[in-house]
Write a structure and sequence with these properties.
Blueprint: E1 2-10, E2 23-29, E3 41-45, E4 54-58, H1 61-68, E5 78-82
């Protein structure tokens, strides 16, 4: 798991069929102190997190494939939870 902050949304005119209906967000990974760590990434989000939300991200392949419902999805990151502040 990785702590992150939603900094935007992403759209695609052409995408893998397994992404149909999924919302994509741009997430900035954060370290334990809440500072930026690394480069932003695209993640799928079915929780409706807003720009500025702190979230938990997962890159667990099996979990993401189960969430998407496909064994051949190219998705690597997904929003697992929204952190209450």
């Amino acid at each position: 798991m990785q702590l992150g902050q939603i900094i935007g949304t992403a759209t695609a005119t052409a995408k893998h069929p397994t992404l149909s209906g999924w919302r994509m967000v741009v997430a900035q990974p954060l370290d334990a102190n809440g500072n930026d760590e690394g480069t932003p990434m695209i993640a799928v989000d079915n929780l409706g997190s807003a720009v500025g939300s702190r979230v938990m991200l997962t890159s667990d392949g099996k979990g993401v494939r189960e969430m998407i419902g496909s064994n051949n999805t190219p998705v690597r990151w997904a929003v697992l939870g929204v952190i209450d502040e």
